[in-house]
Write a structure and sequence with these properties.
The complex is a heterodimer. By secondary structure, chain A is an alpha/beta fold. Chain A folds into two domains: about 5-100; about 100-430, 3-Layer(aba) Sandwich (Rossmann fold), CATH 3.40.50.1820. Chain A has 15 helices and ten strands. Chain A has an eight-stranded mixed β-sheet with strand order 1-2-4-3-7-8-9-10, sandwiched between helices. By secondary structure, chain B is mostly helical. Chain B has one domain (about 5-145). Helix content of chain B is about 80%, strand content about 0%. The radius of gyration of chain B is 18 Å and the shape is elongated. The chains are: A alpha/beta, B mainly alpha. The interface between A and B is large, with 38 and 39 residues.
Amino acid sequence: MTKFKKINILKVILINICILTFIVGIYFTAIVLFKIPTSLAITLSYFLSQISGFLTILYILTTILLLKLLSTRYKKKTWISKIVLIFGFSLALLNSLPLISTPFSIQNAENEFNLAYGSDWRSTIPNQVESYMSPTQFNLYGYFLGFPIKDCNVDVDVLYYENDGLRLYFDAYYPKGDGSKLPGNNSVIIKIHGGSWQYGDKSLGNVLVLNKYLAAQGYVVFDIQYGLLDAGGSSFIPTPDYVRGNVTLSDMIYQIGNFTKRLENEYAPIYKANLNSVFIMGGSAGGHLTAVCGLGYNDPYFAGNFSNALNIKGIVPIYPPNFAARYFDDEPLTRLIPGDPLSNPTAYAKFTPSNLADAGDPPALIFQGLRDDLVSLDNAETIKSALNNNGINCLLLTFPFAAHASDLIVGNSFSQVWVYYLERFLYISQQSS
Amino acid sequence: MIIKKPQTIVKQVSKISIFLNIITSSLGILYLIMPSPSILYDIFGIFMIFTWSSDLLILFTIDKFLNKSSIIGKKINRHSYFFIMSFIFCIIMIVFGIIFTNFIISGFLAILGSLMIISGFFIIAIYGIYYSLLIFSNNDIKEGWNFD
């Protein structure tokens, strides 16, 4: 085969790869922009909006490559080039929308902070403290080269619960030096992972880059496991077998409560944890459990479940499901609450976080993507209204084009804005009496 | 004057691209040594986007001015393909690097992730300098271009 023929074959292959990229690109773009109710599309939606800036560049490069290849083959058919040009750049423009929408997320967050803490809320954070925090809400190097990973101490797989065939562990992330001299002041963050109450794990599934970042700022982060419902299904989310069993929501809350008691008695001295300043944080199902634990901490329904020594300064539910009757209505999740809303109305009411809101609750910061197909905005809005109606600050940070789990890659356009306001919320809440 | 205009534009854009790629590479090295949050790196991020945009602009516009039947035209055309392919490969490498470093805390894959990001960034920057320099230094060779 001559060199000329080889080059021609290579060009044909490249043209086909470019066309295939565009076809896949249409599907990916549709997922970023619209709800496509297939399991593959929902799974892809977790990641695509987080990397859409990279996809924008890839589509521009593909367009340039295809134009070059076509110019050598179809010298006279300039209309083909025009179609490729318009199509490729349209695809790139649509994929850049999540990135372009960042100023709207920032403006919304600013409004929420101004409303909660007054327009001069930044003055409550000393310059020396702020020097440890992200200087700006968003930066391009963090987006395209990744979030700088901070150094801290990490203890993994500490067993805290062994019963009913379940073994539950936690990982502890804590500062290398004296945490009391850092913004976190050894405040505790209990992190609860997501996974539809059936799947998921600490560490890998619980934004470990953020755990390290917060620990380096002086927080003691306990990334915990809890019992998960084993309904026989499977998922792409890694889940250890030893945490799965015939578990209900009450069991999960009991296990988390058990952790708070062991934290008080055993772990706080080991990790120099400041029990006077405790936060609970979690995403998705973990966001629901965060809201139930945080708002139910003082509720008589959960009396005796949690340690009384912990002072909950704030909760951070991330895309939290709120309505128990909506989420625990069908198999297998209906097994999480015995009975149904008619036969067991109290349990359904108490596992709906907005029903637990009262004037003694801690403030809340909520992350909510506006393209979340699994947990819609009305869940977060209902929790916010319930807390605000009781005079408690609840800051709802919304992110256009952010799908479910859009905070997983720390450094993306949503996550950077989120981390900027999260670290400030944690500090301001810590200082409140 | 009208005939010379595209030639001047190509020369200027390639000159700007060389400058931007050098600045971005230098700030990239600084970021690699001291990766702490700073306003300086916010400027680095803006430079990086301008640099990548100038690289894409050159790749996009250069094709119609190249005389691909000449030796230098062939050489630049060949490097255009290599640069586009490297750019695509590096962007994919950076994406996977970021995913690895976000989900794996330590071990081989975490190191590999960081290496993928660093090498992806610097391959784009170094090839960007070389490619822009190639265009800039050969801009005056008449037979390589179809500026008229």
